[in-house]
Amino acid sequence: MRSSKHSPWFQSVVLLTAALLAAGCASSRREMYIQEKASGYVYRKPMAEVWPQLRSLLKEKELPIREAPGAFEIATDWAMVGAPSSLGTNYVRYYVRGRQPSPVQSTVEIFRQNRTESGPGPVDSRTGQRQALGTDTTNMTRDRELEWELLQRVDPEGARALRAEAEAAVK
């Protein structure tokens, strides 16, 4: 019977790989922790200071915005994500809602809506009509990544504190 001993080099590679995977998982968990906290963040600033920076962030992403008069609400138009494909073309738009619970506090919720439009399928030889490849799908979720980006822009000190909290909480 043969012994299944591995060389020290092989063992080192296995240990290094495991350590890198563990570090990557911790980093991913920290980012999730940060984004979760950022989505419930209360800015210690009035909405009048937060809203212009939000508008600027959306414009930098080249998203045409439509703002509701007299309210802290923005909707963007649909924008194509990536190149069109015969398997489906993806679009995204955003809906943003700001609230001001007190004169010196504000909160922002950013929702991302994704839509996939299926392309035309092959021609049916019996009817001569194009078959659809699938149905259109849409979903709407909080965009915690964009909320975190806004937090870093509006309140860099608060963002640093949140990152330090994540470093301490998630090992």
What does this structure look like?
- It is a single chain.
- A hairpin with a 5-residue loop joins strand 1 (65-67) and strand 2 (73-76).
- Helices cover 42% and strands 29% of the residues.
- With 171 residues, it is α+β, with helices and mostly antiparallel strands.
- The protein has helices at residues 8-39, 47-60, 144-154, 156-169; strands at residues 65-67, 73-76, 79-81, 89-102, 105-117, 120-123, 130-132, 137-142.
Short description, anyone?
Helices cover 42% and strands 29% of the residues.
Descriptors:
6-stranded antiparallel beta sheet; 171 residues; two-stranded antiparallel sheet; alpha+beta; flat; 8 strands
* Rounded radius of gyration (Å): 24 Å
- The separation of the N and C termini measures 42 Å
Report the uncertain regions: none
- Overall pLDDT metric: 82
Number of beta-strand segments: 8
Query: What's the assembly state of these chains?
Result: single chain
Helix content, binned percent? 40-55%
The run of helices and strands is: HHEEEEEEEEHH
Class of secondary structure makeup: alpha+beta
Global shape: flat
Q: Summarize the main sheet.
A: 6 strands, antiparallel
Number of DSSP helices?
A: 4
Strand content: 25-35%
Write the layout of secondary structure elements.
Elements: H1 8-39, H2 47-60, E1 65-67, E2 73-76, E3 79-81, E4 89-102, E5 105-117, E6 120-123, E7 130-132, E8 137-142, H3 144-154, H4 156-169
Antiparallel strand pairs: 1-2, 2-4, 3-4, 4-5, 5-8, 6-7
Helix pairs in contact: 1-3, 1-4, 3-4
